[in-house]
Amino acid sequence: MATDRESTPLPAGKARRAPDPRPARTRAAILDAIDRLGTAGREVNVASIVAEAQLSRSSFYSQFKDLGDVAVQLMAEIAAEMEAYDKRSRDLGQHTEANLGTTRLLIEEMQRRRGLYSAVLGGSATVDASRVIYERMAVGLEKAVRRTAPPEINPRTASVYIVSGTLIVLIDWLRSEDPVPAEQILSEIISMSPDWLK
């Protein structure tokens, strides 16, 4: 469906402007800075991000409300990717692969941005961001639970329970002084998943 802007003819000699690429570059610079800070084991907060990205604070706030908002947006992206992966796998009857693959995607994202998720989900950022992340992940998981859970299982309750346990385990793993390898934490989480989900 065309918008008014698309359907309104331009005066002769006028061309449409291309979208401004600066917001995308600013967002990419912020995410790259978060990744570098995390890799270096440095604290991730707005001050360290803008210093690392060589941006002003106003540039950061033009893209995100706060540090929690960064995590919420990134988790929304990974949650959508996990839902798509889960649906593809389960449609092919690959329930074990669905559980394994989606959990691996979550672990890889959290490991990549360890500093960010430790700060946000570990308690130093807003409670609202943590709540939104938990809720978004539970909504995504509920779709899989509805497809596989026995009738006596309430899909909403099971989803909240599984997501809460998984994220608490991962937060503890992120904050550990000597974290176990990612494949080990993946194996542990999968072994604790209900059999009907696998």
Q: Mind explaining what this structure looks like?
A:
The chain has helices at 4-7, 22-39, 46-53, 57-63, 67-91, 95-112, 114-121, 127-148, 155-175, 182-192. The chain is 72% helix and 0% strand. It folds into two domains: 22-63; 66-192, Orthogonal Bundle (Tetracycline Repressor, domain 2), CATH 1.10.357. With 198 residues, it is mostly helical. It is built from ten helices and no strands. It is globular. The N and C termini lie far apart (41 Å).
Tag the structure with descriptive keywords.
Tetracycline Repressor, domain 2; 72% helix; 198 residues; mainly alpha; 10 helices
Write the layout of secondary structure elements.
Blueprint: H1 4-7, H2 22-39, H3 46-53, H4 57-63, H5 67-91, H6 95-112, H7 114-121, H8 127-148, H9 155-175, H10 182-192
